[in-house]
Design a protein that fits this description.
CATH architecture of one domain in chain B: 2-Layer Sandwich
Mean pLDDT of chain B: 90
Low-confidence stretches of chain B: 1-42
Distance between the termini of chain A: 52 Å
Distance between the termini of chain B: 52 Å
Number of helices of chain A: 2
Number of helices of chain B: 16
Shape of chain A: elongated
Number of strands of chain B: 15
CATH topology of one domain in chain B: Dihydrodipicolinate Reductase, domain 2
Oligomer: heterodimer
Radius of gyration of chain A: 25 Å
Largest sheet of chain A: 5 strands, antiparallel
Order of helices and strands of chain A: HEEEEEEEEEEEHEEEEEEEEEEE
CATH class of one domain in chain B: Alpha Beta
Strand order of the largest sheet of chain A: 1-9-8-4-6
Mean pLDDT of chain A: 88
Largest interface: A-B, 32 and 32 residues
Strand order of the largest sheet of chain B: 14-13-12-11-7-10-9-8-15
Helix content of chain A: under 10%
Chain lengths: ~325, ~475
């Protein structure tokens, strides 16, 4: 840990180096609710240095805190954390003494970085400073997101689940984790044949163009999928397992910004078809079980749900939620 | 079945340690109380961490000096030493230059075998109790591999370091806490590495599990479960497999977890023990010792010398280990009950779990991690082991299959050990890891003597455990070309 060192007085406007670092790192300052008398002279700046993601490696990460308030900052403690399961040493560092207005302190943490995973991966890091005095806010948090790899070119490259089988060969199916699947014949009866066009919520989607009994949908687990273009919303075609098939879709734009929106699908059968705000696209009669077709008279459903986009921006790719109960057959932009 | 000598030669050669162990075992047998509830949670006061001697420094992150080639000596040519010798000779840049066993004919046979495989003939030592000492005195060795019965490991590993060699010692490196400290101190004084020959640390599933843990797929790791569950009854009563029945005789000496390292070490690695966490307390339970006596009753003739033995080691000895960061490890040892083999290898955290020796996957493992999985159903490990396959297996997996036992783990251990030395790298496993993983042997005995009360696990790193550092989850590197 480096001790607090002086910098030029005069507040954040006179700290271009720190500001540049903050912007370069895509840092978001998020002061927590004030725990002392509010005195937000210039705000507290927290910045996280770039992280070496070329693991396995023990990487040093530096967090810089600058007192932008008009009072001395005392009892400064800085905590840092990476993705869940990544070891950090130490988890919190304290800074001796105090920082006058405009002064900054640097603290260093060790981070255990694993080997890179294939595909696009976004790693999130968070540093939180707690203090007394300064701007009076009591704490400030910086987050940093670092990307590596490239997104999948199409959702079909993420297919990992067999959700549709032929009634004559149901063994490969496992949409729900219990060996059950949609019936290809019953889907065809409602127009969902391989490669069929599906219109939903203003978007044109495509039903999986793969043979029955092969991977035809993706169980959402944070996969990044290219979806270049412009529009008003992203429409997802899918269905749910369990009753909490919900999550947040993150949209990455070509200008480097992101937005996110929540969506969800009802259980493919045993839940209100409007649950989580979804729209019913098609209902099929019965399902395929490991021992063949069954459950006739019960509907098994396909839904659509949409997430709005930031107006005027061009989408680069989207990141599916981290919830494998959310199964996606396709996604598309709607005008 | 042939007649047997009343007092085996091996027991005589065991010397003071074996005698002491017998005495301790007698006391333990009467004190152990299987099934009793655990004592209050406070651990017994730790032995004071001994101060480092003058000039003695930590071996953490100390690389090997780079060796152009590695000259290896082997002490102990029983089942293990003999089977490992060809693997050592097959590693590029490693030459088995000397072999030793108290039985000279074994040294001759191993030497003959190496020659038949195209390797240079090693010097042979044998025929006397101190043959291994003569080998260390006369030969210039870079590395000594110790594969003798457990009671000799401490003395021979220590002597190898003092002779100027590094040492790779079969499980356990020692059987007493003071011996473990002695090996740590000797390594630090001599600046030579001593490492446990824990082949299972290099198991393909175990290494993939480790890399998944570091990726965070299991979330924050909270608990793990490993051990050595291997029905050895037939071998333990064999008149030829374990020389002088040395391994069975340990079951008459002390009630302890002799050999849980095969399952404990991979779990400890995945928890970064000595690399950010450490094992802090241990409490043990033991079942009654029934298995060996029952087997003997059914299958061993009354004329067999084993009928003069009383078995005191509980069939299943379980160590509950708490770490400094609040994780728990359950380490088990059972070699005297009828059951299929397992090292368990279970690792769990806030986001998921891996279990080995379970399910139907060809890898032998199954997994359930959020967000990849939902629905309360296990998934095959196959896809994860493929993605998280360790670079060592990608690089030398085929060689391992051709050259080594135990599914190739032995050869990976051998290749990597030689590579680390020749490339001048920091060892994946060091003396601190080795001491910590073997400490449950004496500590479980102590806990059982005290009705299962927790005992403190020594900090063999003397505080160095707090710092993160790489270990078995290493960066890829090459074997230097053979000159």
């Amino acid at each position: 840990m480096r001790p607090a060192r002086p910098s030029r007085p005069g507040g954040p406007a006179l700290l271009p180096r720190l500001l540049a670092l903050v912007l370069a790192a895509l840092v978001v300052l998020a002061p927590a609710p004030a725990v002392a008398a509010p005195d937000t002279g210039g705000g507290t700046a927290v910045a996280i240095s770039p992280v070496d993601l070329d693991g396995p490696v023990i990487a040093d990460v530096t967090v810089t805190v600058e007192n932008g308030g008009d009072r001395r900052m005392r009892d400064l403690a800085v905590s840092f954390e990476g993705p869940v399961g990544w070891a950090v040493q130490p988890e919190t560092r304290t800074v001796k003494g105090s920082l006058r207005t405009g002064q900054e302190a640097e603290v260093t943490f060790q981070l255990q970085v694993p080997e890179r995973r294939p595909g696009l991966v976004v790693r999130h890091f968070t540093a939180t400073a707690t203090y007394r005095g300064g701007d009076g806010a009591g704490s400030a948090t910086a987050t940093r997101a670092e990307r590596s790899g490239t997104p999948l070119a199409h959702v079909s490259q993420a297919y990992d689940t067999v959700g549709i089988t032929d009634e004559a060969a149901t063994g490969a199916g496992n949409f729900d984790g219990e060996g059950n699947s949609f019936s290809a014949q019953r889907l065809a009866a409602v127009g969902l044949t391989p490669g069929a066009r599906v219109e939903a919520l203003g978007a044109e989607l495509t039903w999986p163009d793969v043979p029955a009994g092969t991977a035809d949908n993706v169980a959402s687990a944070g996969q990044a999928i290219a979806l270049p273009g412009e529009g008003s919303k992203v429409v997802l075609l899918g269905s749910g397992v369990g009753r909490q098939a919900t999550g947040s879709l993150t949209v990455h734009y070509t200008d480097g910004s992101t937005s996110s929106g929540s969506f969800g699908f009802p259980n493919w059968s045993f839940q209100d078809t409007g649950a989580h705000g979804a729209t019913l696209v098609a209902a099929t009669d019965g399902r395929n079980r490991p021992d063949g077709y069954g459950n006739a008279g019960i509907d098994y459903n396909v839904f659509a749900h949409a997430v709005p986009l930031d107006a005027g921006k061009t989408v680069e790719f989207v990141v599916l939620p981290a919830n494998a109960a959310v199964h996606v057959f396709d996604l598309a932009l709607a005008p | 079945m042939p007649e047997h000598r009343a007092v085996p030669r091996r027991l005589v050669l065991g010397g003071a340690l074996a005698t002491g162990a017998i005495a301790a075992g007698a006391a333990t047998a009467s004190a152990a109380s299987p099934g009793r509830p655990a004592a209050p949670p406070e651990a017994l006061a730790a032995e004071r961490t001994p101060r480092r001697g003058r000039g003695q420094k930590s071996m953490i992150n100390v690389p090997f000096e780079a060796y152009r080639t590695v000259r290896l000596g082997i002490i102990g040519l029983g089942n293990r030493g003999r089977s490992m010798a060809p693997g050592w000779a097959a590693v590029p840049g490693c030459t088995v230059t000397a072999v030793c066993d108290v039985r000279a004919d074994r040294a001759r046979r191993v030497a003959d075998d190496l020659v038949s495989r195209g390797a240079p003939r090693p010097a042979e030592y044998g025929g006397a109790e101190d043959s291994w000492e003569r080998m260390l005195e006369r030969e210039e060795l870079d590395l000594v591999y110790v594969a003798t019965p457990w009671e000799f490991h401490h003395r021979q590993g220590r002597a190898a370091l003092l002779a100027g060699a590094h040492a790779v010692v079969e499980l356990p490196i020692a059987t007493e806490v003071k011996e473990l400290w002695d090996l740590v101190d000797t390594s630090e004084r001599t600046r030579r590495h001593l490492l446990l020959a824990e082949n299972c640390s290099y198991g393909r599933n175990e290494l993939a599990m480790l890399k998944m843990a570091h990726e965070g797929l299991f979330g924050d790791i909270t608990n793990g479960h490993g051990g050595y569950l291997h029905d050895l009854r037939e071998l333990l009563f064999s008149d030829t497999y374990y020389t002088d029945a040395w391994r069975r005789r340990w079951h008459t000496r002390v009630n302890a977890s002799f050999y849980a390292m095969h399952g404990l070490a991979p779990i400890a690695a995945a928890m970064d023990v000595n690399r950010g966490d450490r094992m802090a307390t241990l409490s043990a339970t033991a079942t009654e010792p029934r298995g060996l006596a029952d087997y003997r009753e059914r299958f061993v003739p009354r004329s067999h010398p084993s009928w003069r033995e009383e078995y005191v080691k509980g069939d299943l000895v379980t160590c509950m280990i708490g770490t400094e960061k609040g994780r728990t490890i359950r380490a088990e040892h059972d070699v005297s009950s009828p059951r299929p083999y397992s090292r368990i290898n279970t690792l769990a955290g806030s986001r998921g779990i891996f279990e080995d020796y379970a399910g139907t996957s060809s890898t032998g493992g199954r997994v359930y991690v959020e967000p990849d999985h939902s629905g309360h159903a296990w998934r095959d490990f196959d896809a994860y082991r493929k993605e998280f396959d360790h670079w060592l297996w990608k690089k030398i997996g085929d060689d391992a299959a051709n050259n080594g036992g135990h599914g190739g783990m032995d050869y990976v251990l051998q290749w990597r050990t030689v590579q680390l030395m020749r490339a001048g790298l920091v060892p994946d496993i060091d003396v601190y890891d080795s001491a910590a993983w073997c400490a449950p042997f004496p500590l479980s005995a102590e806990s059982l003597r005290r009705s299962g009360r927790p005992v403190s696990v020594p900090d063999f790193t003397r505080g160095g455990w707090v710092n993160l550092r790489l270990g078995l989850d290493s960066r890829p590197s090459d074997m230097p070309p053979v000159p």
